[in-house]
Amino acid sequence: MKTFLFLFxxxxxxxxxxxxxxxxxxxxxxxxxxxxLGLNSSLISSFLSDEEYEEIKPLLKKAKHVRILxxxxxxxxxxxxxxxxxxKSTFDEMVKIKDDNDKVNxxxxxxxxxxxxxxxxxxxxxxxxxxxxxxxxxxxxxxxLIKD
Length: 148
What we know:
A hairpin with a 2-residue loop joins strand 3 (92-99) and strand 4 (102-111). By secondary structure, the protein is α+β, with helices and mostly antiparallel strands. Strands 1-2-6-5-4-3 form a 6-stranded antiparallel sheet. The protein is globular and about 35 Å long. The chain has one domain (20-147). The chain has helices at 2-18, 22-29, 50-61, 75-88, 139-147; strands at residues 35-40, 63-71, 92-99, 102-111, 114-123, 128-137. Helices cover 41% and strands 36% of the residues. InterPro entries: DUF4252. This is DUF4252 domain-containing protein. It comes from Namhaeicola litoreus. Keywords: Signal.
């Protein structure tokens, strides 16, 4: 019985360790940020114009909350910390865009054919910005977003 409990605990801890949430990174590094913001997705519409809101409305319907971190003074150090976080997590890189010295990466965390988290990383010469979005998107939702 002890062997069974040990094996069960090991499997449980291992599976939890691989599903690292962006929220963990956010909580750990929020004090280092020059600006940080955590919002319920229903509040995002108050920061957008009607036109902008209509464009992302389908995404926000499937979102739970948004976390934003902006680093300026220690952007290189935080960029390295984030790279380490991503490499140890189960996030997949979905999109990579580079324009001169600006870079944008989009990472997703999937579970049971649903995208549970989306993290957007933006690097420029002076700034490092992270946006994390907790979602429940299916492949059909993604196809609709891309189509529109």
